Amino acid sequence: MKDKFKIWLRATRPFSLTASIIPVTIGAIFATKESEFQLMYYLLSLLAAVLLQASSNMLNDYDDFINKVDTKESGSSSGIIFENLLTPEELSKGGRLVLTLGCMLGLFLAFKKGPFVLILGTIGALSGYFYTGKPLMLKYRGLGAPLIFIIFGPLMMLGGYFVQLQRVSTNVLLLSIPVGLLTTAILHANDIRDIYHDKKAGIKTLSIMVGKTSSYYIYYGLISLSYISVLAMTYFRVTPMWSLLCLITLPTALKNINKLHISNGSNSELATLDQETAKLQGQFGVILIISILFSSMK
């Protein structure tokens, strides 16, 4: 039973789940500037977001296997199917079950907090399902990067904020920019690594569409603009001065950029760049959360 739990946990790609945890938490914490923190609704919205992301990760692995995007030669994000830990059918059923649980929580939150939550949740659920699912298969059509930015930037951060206050905020939208950019960089790192195999499978990602050299510059831009946006928002007092502590993570960011720069397209060099980028996003996000929380307590 314990081993089975570990397998299912691995199938969710836990290293990537900060992509949903960070924006929902920032949105909720930012709301404490104007209202008392509603812990229960924060936890429910966080769980709903994590379940939706986890289901998307699982269904993405299934779709990539069925569509021969992932092979034994190319590997896959979790490796669950190719290591015979779960069958494709088990992974698909598990992903759909997790998606259903996330949707049920979303419906409860919409009932309690209003139809705008339903709109955000519906967009998130459909985007996650059709990320690689038929008939839209958005990732395979080069729409993965903008979709990830929208879902894990504005959509989830607005959701976390709205559940607390039942209104939207321009500042929250601005605050979602660096988080969305760094989360998009996780996907983009994965796509850069998989250029050869994705092209062989006949799909289109942003990296394939713009070419290897340009895709490198896009990664550099996503990372750089994350820091630039925080500097700009701090200057214009959207975020507190404490948010400049995010610059502590700059050496990690530069390390990742250098890793890509010297890789020369080597898959072995790029094998963990997505995970390293996820760590950067997590560290950056935690510091941003702490800075906003600290300023709210003053």
UniProtKB/TrEMBL annotation:
Xref: CDD domains? PT_UbiA_UBIAD1 (cd13962)
The organism that produces this protein has a lineage beginning with: Bacteria, Bacillati, Bacillota, Clostridia, Eubacteriales
Q: Which GO terms describe its molecular function?
A: 1,4-dihydroxy-2-naphthoate polyprenyltransferase activity
The UniProt entry's GO CC annotations, sorted and at most eight, read:
plasma membrane
Q: What does this protein do?
A: Conversion of 1,4-dihydroxy-2-naphthoate (DHNA) to demethylmenaquinone (DMK).
Q: What is its EC number?
A: 2.5.1.74
Q: Which domain of life is it from?
A: Bacteria
Main location group: membrane
User: For this UniProt entry, which segments traverse the membrane?
Assistant: 15-32, 39-59, 114-131, 143-162, 168-189, 217-236
* Pathway named in the protein's UniProt entry: Quinol/quinone metabolism; menaquinone biosynthesis; menaquinol from 1,4-dihydroxy-2-naphthoate: step 1/2
How does this protein sit in the membrane? Answer: Multi-pass membrane protein
Presence of the UniProt keyword Protein transport in the record: no
A single GO BP term for this record reads: menaquinone biosynthetic process
Q: Which reaction does it catalyse?
A: an all-trans-polyprenyl diphosphate + 1,4-dihydroxy-2-naphthoate + H(+) = a 2-demethylmenaquinol + CO2 + diphosphate
**Organism (species):** Clostridium magnum DSM 2767
Keywords attached to this entry = Cell membrane, Membrane, Menaquinone biosynthesis, Transferase, Transmembrane, Transmembrane helix
Q: What name appears for this protein in its UniProt entry?
A: 1,4-dihydroxy-2-naphthoate octaprenyltransferase
Describe the family membership recorded for this protein in Swiss-Prot or TrEMBL: Belongs to the MenA family. Type 1 subfamily.
Q: Where in the cell is it found?
A: Cell membrane; Membrane
